[in-house]
């Protein structure tokens, strides 16, 4: 797999675009929180990242399945460079951060990612062999988690030594690297042919995508499960975790960074572990998904009752491995059971539904944190995770699901 040039280029795109978006978002979130001292206003960064997926997800899925996915990747990164250029201009004077315009920039960046992410994920089964799907997803997952962990540490450090304008310029350079990598990806012949043979109208494609998801025995329960799960996911926004670290544990923003980093280190460990148990993941993905969902509830309850920052860091680390292994199992399961010409729509539709719920839940919990103790919010989240795990446990097709064998990809062409 590591000798697969096209996959490595796709991996590079995932790495640099993740780093770019996270650095920009984290530095904006911290600056807004320090400037306003408002959890709700800081949660605006979460809204800016979630709203586009809710509004554009179905459209993005259709377009990703109708056009060459390589072109989608390059086009969206070109758009993001233009948006970063606008942010550089807005930040030229320094001083107080123009919150509303910068959040609009975040909305634009996230809108581009609504198209970019399903295109990346849908390309994976076209660039690697079916037997390597678990390894490919694990490899991308582990490096993505490394980048996410570093982003919180590096983002805080950069704010001490650089201006927001200089950070934005660095983000633009990262997007340029992603564009260069995308131009060199060779698109499989089968992928091009599928797009050329598409004869449905846009609206027919949109409707057929929803119908396919509704009928699919694996994609449907996975989507339902993730929809419900994204309600308690709302307690894990950066703003809520910052409030938990400061109000619940008496810490500061540095302690918040330690907790988040602990979780991402755990995700890294879990992603590496997925590489070691790839055969088991291939045979029993459904059981792994069910066990992870139940475990999330118990760990969230333990986190709610943590008595120190380092206890919270330790629980955050333990949270990581089951989440990472489950994410790998879910992506590989979808990529092996969903038709390739429907994969973009399935990914985008899932993202639409869960982003809408996550956005609403995040805002609700941010508002609620000003009324009730922050620990109570995390207790409620733990109970909701357990209910989601119960749904997964009682869904037989999901519980007993296995990865289907599919034909190997055709030879690539530019």
Descriptive notes:
- This protein is mainly α.
- It has one domain (5-402): Up-down Bundle (Growth Hormone, Chain: A), CATH 1.20.1250.20.
- Helices cover 81% and strands 1% of the residues.
- The chain has helices at 5-36, 39-42, 44-66, 69-90, 99-127, 133-161, 164-183, 189-196, 202-215, 219-229, 238-248, 253-276, 278-283, 285-304, 309-337, 340-368, 374-394, 396-399, and strands at residues 187-188, 412-413.
- The longest helix is centred in the first third of the chain and has 32 residues, at 5-36.
- The protein is globular, with a radius of gyration of 21 Å.
Name of the CATH homologous superfamily:
MFS general substrate transporter like domains
Count of separate DSSP helical elements: 18
Q: Tell me, what's the shape?
A: globular
CATH architecture: Up-down Bundle
How many distinct folded domains?
A: 1
Compressed to H and E, one letter per element, the order equals HHHHHHHEHHHHHHHHHHHE
The counted number of beta strands is: 2
Q: Separation of termini?
A: 19 Å
State Rg: 21 Å
Give a short overview.
The chain is an all-alpha fold. The protein has helices at 5-36, 39-42, 44-66, 69-90, 99-127, 133-161, 164-183, 189-196, 202-215, 219-229, 238-248, 253-276, 278-283, 285-304, 309-337, 340-368, 374-394, 396-399, and strands at residues 187-188, 412-413.
Give the arrangement of secondary structure elements.
Layout: H1 5-36, H2 39-42, H3 44-66, H4 69-90, H5 99-127, H6 133-161, H7 164-183, E1 187-188, H8 189-196, H9 202-215, H10 219-229, H11 238-248, H12 253-276, H13 278-283, H14 285-304, H15 309-337, H16 340-368, H17 374-394, H18 396-399, E2 412-413
Helix pairs in contact: 1-5, 1-6, 1-7, 3-5, 3-9, 3-16, 4-5, 4-7, 5-16, 6-12, 6-15, 9-16, 10-16, 10-17, 11-12, 12-15, 14-15, 14-17
